[in-house]
User: Fold these one by one.
Assistant:
Number 1:
Amino acid sequence: MIRVEDVHMHFGGIRAVNGATLEIAKGSITGLIGPNGAGKTTLFNCIAGHYAPTSGKIFLDGEEITGLAPHELFHKGLLRTFQIAHEFATLTVRENLMMVPGEQMGERLWNTFFHRKAIAEEEAGVRARADEVIDFLTLNRVADELAGNLSGGQKKLLELGRTMMVDAKIVFLDEVGAGVNRTLLKTIADAIRRLNQERGYTFCMIEHDMDFIGDLCDPVIVMAEGTVLTQGHVDEVKNNEQVIEAYLGTGMKQRPNRAKAGA
């Protein structure tokens, strides 16, 4: 579904992404991991249109999307969430969801005067969809609460819910589990799994919680120093010497051998 070919993203002399090449299969939940500074979020931003890469190409379903703006990718079904939730704090949970679908009739002044009935019918449909999302994510108790008053985990659920208000093909999740308590983390994991299995969503997620990654993701792609180091099943990745070195450093990798030799 997504193909990234030799993508580079440079900021002056800093090569945040340095020749990354990868593929995300349709219908998968793909994990993207790596040490801090590996280029994961920068690559997300290139794919999602927040940065135009310095060089390289990005494809969605065979169509080149390199450099397209986020709103153009939104209409193609490519969405992303952020590590820090971007809710409308002074709107309710339901209102946040109802804001998502684009080009609603009520957004045009002319229609507010001459097409009130059509606007009301469309709004009723959007509201019904929002209520369905609220029920799916078990947010009923806070449906009419201001989004700014939600806990961190509830805000992450709301971000996930906003992707459900449109016909998403692929969703990029940036540390959806960061700062979330274990109970809500399970709710988020269950929602991601159900969206994948029941509604055909494709996900790619950056995450540092390896238990969370292991529970949801296959395959797992590892980045280091701006490029793809390896990929495979989570157990293969965790036992890969290159991955261990990238996370812990050569010294940490060799320490058990030195201790054994001195025994």
Number 2:
Amino acid sequence: MSFKLNKKAINQIKKKIKELKGKKAEKCELTIEDFESLFDVDHEGATALHKSFDTDGNGTVEWKELLGGITVLSSDSVEQKAELLFSTWDLDGNMILDRSEVLQMLTSVITIAATLQLCDKVSELKKKFGQNFDTQNFEDRKSVRENLNIDKESLTEAVNSFFKQVDNDENGEISYEEFKIYCENDPNAVSAFEERIQQLTYKKKGGACSIM
């Protein structure tokens, strides 16, 4: 997936921030809670993404920081994306991903993917069966996400599989160099995060699930 950050996309993002905060994007200081709404992710995912965008470490993300992070994710540089995504999930900042950090990362990625799939399926069913189709708890992605039940055993298997693919020296930790190699070898490695940027500036017509 490739998302190009252009003037139209920037204006759309500004519009959504103004709807969320009630003032111009350039004057806003975005909190973790704002990121939850803006990117439609769970609290853990919003916290991690907010941390990596907050380059001055003051606890909020200003417009220039938001634009900088989105620019990296929308660029063609795999190395830049890998660096940003690694810092997003390196929660303690020690330049190493341990199993708990990878578990949180994969939980967020799987939640995003499952939410999108469920929303698309519900939209199809609603079109097929009409307005009488029961869409309770499926009217937007946030409610879908909150009602997901992700199997813990499957998550554990996903973490084990991730380490098998990425932890080349098998020391039980993932370094930045190992993560960068993984991203370079797998073009889909960052697609879930790019999806959030793309969804931020695009709304699917006729769907039951909104992006905000």
